[in-house]
Design goal:
Low-confidence stretches: 1-6, 318-323
Mean pLDDT: 90
CATH topology of one domain: Alpha-Beta Plaits
CATH class of one domain: Alpha Beta
Oligomer: single chain
Radius of gyration: 22 Å
Number of strands: 7
Order of helices and strands: HHEHHEEHEHEEHEHHHHH
Distance between the termini: 19 Å
Strand order of the largest sheet: 5-6-4-7
Structural class: alpha+beta
């Protein structure tokens, strides 16, 4: 592990400030690291390497093992043993959910709106447990309850919705349709569909979260203008960045920008997150690969999807990828 810098080092101070301002919980941090650092390199990590990746954040061996055990119990991770060693990978049944989260975290916010809404309507015979499970999944995916028993979204991803219904075995228990408003020439006077946004979502908390993210990470951008991080520092900062960004992004319903208030802070926050990620990406990859390859020499370089994050990353910039 790289020797830590002195407290006077501005990057060490920036790391300490980020950790003190929003200390990450170990279980949630493991998920962030799996999605950001491990998934692009084959999706599996030996426990010893995972311990090394978590230790800079103050997560000790016992706490990490407890967090990983719980994630395995919840179906997020799968364990594999080789003698006295154990490895963890993203569970096959959780792979689609990880991929959905990655699309939301790293892709730009949707811009245009085609005027339609995706509506999901529970059939009369659906039982309470299935209805609650579906409601939880749809709310996590950004849908709102626009009427009793009706969830809606103006930019719903059909592939994601289909995956949710298949996983919950509800393909034959709900109605799914696309709704558009009638033209005024049809003689029907009604509220425009864009006003469903105000009825379905209270965006004040999302706006506040984006503004807080910008305020906290603008200071990091200033530090990086004058200081070059070591590979370990780049990894720590990239992890803290994406952990904070993930928590903000996954509470954003991902509405088209044309339906949102002017000067939507999500655009500025996404641009800032992308700029910081590009600055930290190469050094962080060096540290991640060096850590993973200590126990698994065949750990692959980052996959093609990795380089599409935040609108595109430079390919082959890190020492690890030149080796």
């Amino acid at each position: 592990m790289t020797r830590p810098k002195t407290a006077a080092d501005p990057l060490t101070a920036a790391i300490a400030l980020l950790l003190a301002g929003d200390p990450p919980r170990s279980k949630s941090l493991v998920v962030s690291i799996f999605g950001d650092a491990i998934a692009p390199h084959g999706g599996q990590v030996w426990m010893g390497s995972l311990i090394d990746l978590l230790s800079p954040f103050g997560v000790n061996d016992r706490l990490l093992r407890t967090s990983v055990f719980r994630l395995a119990q919840e179906g997020w991770l799968a364990a594999r043993r080789d003698g006295r060693r154990s490895a963890y990978a993203i569970a096959p049944d959780a792979q689609a959910r990880f991929e959905r989260a990655c699309r939301r975290i790293y892709a730009p916010p949707p811009a245009d709106w085609d005027g339609g809404w995706t509506l999901v309507i529970g059939a009369a015979g659906i039982d309470a447990g299935a209805r609650a499970a579906l409601r939880k999944e749809l709310l996590w995916e950004g849908y709102a309850l626009v009427a009793p028993g009706v969830a809606g979204h103006p930019a719903g991803d059909f592939a994601v919705l289909g995956e949710i219904l298949r996983r919950l075995h509800l393909e034959h228990e709900v109605y799914v349709c696309r709704a558009t408003e009638l033209p005024a020439t049809d003689g029907v006077a009604a509220r425009p569909l864009r006003q469903l946004v105000g009825d379905g979502w209270d965006l004040s908390a999302v706006i506040g979260a984006y503004e807080d993210f910008i305020a906290r990470h603008a200071a990091l951008a200033e530090v990086l203008e004058h200081a070059r991080p070591t590979p370990q520092q780049a990894y720590i900062l990239r992890t803290l960045l994406i952990h904070a960004w993930r928590r903000v992004q996954l509470h954003d319903p991902q509405l088209p920008l044309s339906l949102l208030p002017d000067a939507w802070p999500g655009e500025r926050a996404y641009a800032l997150a992308g700029a910081l990620y590009r600055q930290l990406e190469a050094g962080a990859e060096d540290h991640i690969l060096a850590t993973l390859r200590r126990e698994e020499a065949g750990t692959p370089d980052a996959d093609a999807a990795f380089y599409q994050r935040f609108g595109g990353l430079p390919v082959g910039a890190s020492l690890g990828r030149r080796a």
